[in-house]
Design brief:
Blueprint lengths: L19 E2 L4 E2 L5 E5 L6 H14 L3 E3 L17 H14 L3 E4 L3 H8 L4 E4 L7 H10 L3 E4 L6 H12 L6 E5 L17 H8 L4 E3 L1 H5 L2 H13 L4 E5 L17 H20 L1
Parallel strand pairs: 3-4, 3-10, 4-5, 5-6, 6-7, 7-8, 8-9, 9-10
Antiparallel strand pairs: 1-2
Length: about 270
């Protein structure tokens, strides 16, 4: 195995933080980047409505799933390329970049035509052929932690992307599977400062998947900011009970709007400290 001090992703290789520049925002430059949107794109009207609201709130990046890997084959699987066209329309309407998930080489090829950032989800964190293809794409990649993965495995997954020449990587802590079943996952707050010690790439947190409960998203968002997260990825839906995917963990727009001031204040206080 390549020595740690020779790994592209290692903090020992590069002392300064890597900043992922999306033009309208920079992730890892010391600011707090908010990524928000529905788990799955459902319609053009939905995305335009949410994108306009989110921009007014100061959200920097919109998110939405077009290709949805679901536990059940009978669950909503996303709108595919039509969903990407909808996201592109919302992006054009607001000027906000967007992130969406690729689940295999075919969806990656399609997503790269539209998306500003490609997400590699938890289930695909060790899909090494997909990681290599994402690296070759040169698109910024948001790499979610596998739900049973160690920090070393997560970093090595990022190394697959970086080894193909792509150093626009964003780590995303989204909780891991433990014996606890009250929450969807166990949000590993310690992973945020740990990854920042081990790697120079930015780290964002996903408290929506980390908890699976709307009531817990706010507290875990604040904890993630206090732990040093460069940003948050939050699921927001205009009517969560009617959402086609992940309604129980999606915030109402008004809840996100109420949460944001405390996040900004906390980020400022922690930055001063």
């Amino acid at each position: 195995m390549i020595p740690v001090n020779k790994m592209i992703t290692s903090r020992s290789t590069k002392k300064d933080n890597t900043v992922v520049d999306l033009g309208s925002c920079r992730i890892g430059d010391g600011s707090l980047t908010i990524i928000a949107g529905p788990c799955a794109v459902e319609s053009l009207d939905q995305m335009i409505y949410l994108a306009r609201l989110l921009k007014k709130m100061g959200v920097a990046i919109i998110r939405g799933g077009a290709f949805k890997p679901r536990t059940s084959p009978y669950s909503f699987q996303g709108l595919g390329e039509e969903g990407l066209k909808i996201l592109s329309a919302a992006s054009a309407e607001t000027g906000l970049p967007f992130v969406t998930e690729a689940t295999d080489s075919r969806s990656l090829e399609i997503a790269c035509r539209y998306a500003d950032v490609i997400q590699i989800g938890s289930r695909n964190m060790q899909n090494f052929s997909l990681l290599r293809e994402a690296g070759k794409s040169k698109k910024p990649v948001l790499l979610k932690r596998g739900f049973s993965s160690t920090l070393e495995e997560w970093i090595m997954a990022a190394e697959y992307i970086a080894s193909e020449g792509n150093q626009k990587i964003i780590f995303c802590e989204r909780g891991i599977r433990t014996f606890e079943n009250y929450t969807r996952n166990t949000m590993d707050i310690s992973a945020i400062p740990a990854i920042k010690e081990l790697s120079h790439f930015p780290v964002v947190a996903d408290p929506s998947h980390g908890t699976g409960r709307r009531s817990l998203v706010g507290p875990l968002s604040r904890a993630s900011v206090a732990a040093g997260a460069d940003g948050l990825m939050l699921e927001v839906h205009e009517n969560p009970p009617e959402a086609l995917s992940d309604g129980p963990q999606s915030l109402y727009p008004a809840e996100l709007e109420a949460l944001l001031p405390s996040l900004k204040a906390l980020h400022g206080a922690c930055d001063v400290a």
